[in-house]
Amino acid sequence: MARLASPLTVVEYALPPFERQTKSYVCECDSCRICVEYRFLLPRLFFGGFILPTCWILNIALFVYMQEIVEHAVKFPQLAPEDFPTLFELEMYQKRVPIAPEKIRHQRAAENAGSEETKPGQAPVTNLAATDPLGKLLLDSRLEFLTVVSGDVLASHAENRYYFQSWLWRTAFSLTGYILLLTFVIVALRKSQNP
């Protein structure tokens, strides 16, 4: 037996080889790609605006550029053929219930065969995956996969827009408050100088 160099390699070999990885899909429009790159700037410019108010104007200009000038229509990613569910995965799905539910009986059910009752509201369950043709099941699973991907893309696009809009409103309220405070101070100073 080969010696493993570190405890980390022991853990690596102990993990199951076929773990299910969930891949999330994001919008690939120009606006979302730029948003990912400059996302960190918005909070920094917002808080920097309390020291230098021109940062707030830059923050608003950045929002207008990223969300309105750059193309912001939802763009779906190109999916590779290996991303779609395969026939092997669908066969595993079909084989997950090898026994029909009508044939399953509890151990005590064998003892009480004469007093077997059905509960009200209990409908017979059938394994639909085993009765569907394989081609239709494959098409249905691909359609379901595309639905999940489109939901992820739309959610990521909406999340980016919401993030930028929330920082826009914070910046706009802060800038408005700063302008009102500045005009109040100027008016108060003028009135105090004119007796």
TrEMBL record:
Regions crossing the membrane: 45-66, 167-189
Organism field: Lachancea thermotolerans (strain ATCC 56472 / CBS 6340 / NRRL Y-8284) (Yeast)
Region feature (Disordered): 108-127
Keywords on record: Membrane, Transmembrane, Transmembrane helix
This protein's record includes keyword Membrane: yes
Protein name from the UniProt record: KLTH0F04488p
